[in-house]
Give the backbone structure.
Amino acid sequence: MRKDEEKKHLLRALDAFKRKLIVISHDFDVLAANSHAAVVCSENLIGQRCHKALYGRETPCPNCPAIEVLKNREPALRDIRNSTLNSERISCLYSYPVKCGDITEAMVVLDFEFPSLEGLEEQLQRSNAFFRRLIRSAVDGVIAADKSGKIIIFNDAAAELSGYGVEEALENLNIRDVYPGDGAYEIMRKLRSTEYGDKGKLKGFHVDVVAKSGELIPISLYASIIYEEDKEIATIGFFHDLRERIKMQKELEKAQIQLMQSEKMASLGKLAAGVAHQLNNPLGSITLYSKLIMEENELSDSVRKDLQRILKDAQRCRDTVKELLEFARQTRQFMKPTDINVAISRTLFLLESQTLFQNISIQKNLQSDLPLVFGDIQQLNHVFMNIILNAAQAMEGKGTLMIETVADVPNGVVKIEISDTGPGIPMDVMPHIFDPFFTTKEEGKGTGLGLSMVYGIVQNHQGEIRALNREGGGTCFFVELPIAGADKRGDTGGN
């Protein structure tokens, strides 16, 4: 028999045990309970039916391990796989008999499983390690945060995407810092709404995130809210970097634009060829018969002067047709040493006689000994044609157009500046002037392809182009192209 002192210590140990321990009779009446069970249940358990006191049930619980103890007089575990009770409120996961000889006097029920504790910690460690490896090796960034916004999961891909170290993010970063402005609140609003799919889930949502450097990075976000008993306890998101995809889309758009322009110029070339054929025959006749009249007849000075004017204008028409054919001729790209001054002069020859340019003063400052650049003369004609036409339209046919070429031999480039005295480009428009299909012109007066095509051609020539507003009004376009023989090169084989 135990001594009183021993019994006292044993009872204190049971009361100090922070798990529920309840002793019940064959009729499921509570005979005794430790202090933790009494505090958690917050009422006097002794004398009550356990299923009534713990769960408010009039009959014993399904899968109750105490029932198995009564039947088999052996310890039993509750099967909670099909239980309708909340697993966190179950107080009788394990039960064993209190015997006196072969007679079961009572039963003890516990809220934990003695047998299952064996090896549980090791299994838990293995599971946690596998989970960490799974998250860490994910291709996309994985970020989870608790309700306060504190980062609790931050994998290597998220670190690579954001620029934050894993430990740095876990210790100092808040989920609100990941999105610009009120982006985190907007994401939560969408997650809690049913307008974007199932409540608590967000799939393939395109949004920007803020890197440590301040760069805005476009991502595709798959996010969800983690619930516990219908209460939000955390959020988790998978961040897929869209930069490479967007880059490929832009390159595809550029290729499509160049294809459209190529088809457009091919059609223009066919049209120009037809027009040239129709014009060259009558122009030839005009020239021939004018010369015959001058040679075979005695003419007064005034008549001869008129015929010379006819010959001069006819020759000018033939030269214009020839330049138009040369300009719009369908050819494969061929990069070779090219005189930029010739390309600019040819473009001006086609434009300066047009009505739009009659009230525009054209000032040229072309360096006489300008080195040749490595480029395609036809494509460079398109570049200068587009920029000069845009300048004339911006000035609405009145103002000054200034064109300057200069060699920057130390840097291996030829610089071309084309400026006008128009109103300039609005600051909110300036960042988009080279974007495909961006135009400020009225519908039907512009496609938005001109400057994007110009940008693509200059890039293909390994050159640079930019635009700035001039002080006092007007815009200046700066084009730099590599000097033939310098380090920069285009595609010599054609494209």
